[in-house]
Amino acid sequence: MKKVRIHLSGREGLAYRRAPVSFGVPFADGEVEAGVPVGLTGANGRAMPVQTQCLATWKSDRKHLKWLLVDTQADVLEDGARDVFLEIPAAEPPP
Question: Is the entire prediction scored with pTM above 0.85?
Answer without folding.
Answer: no
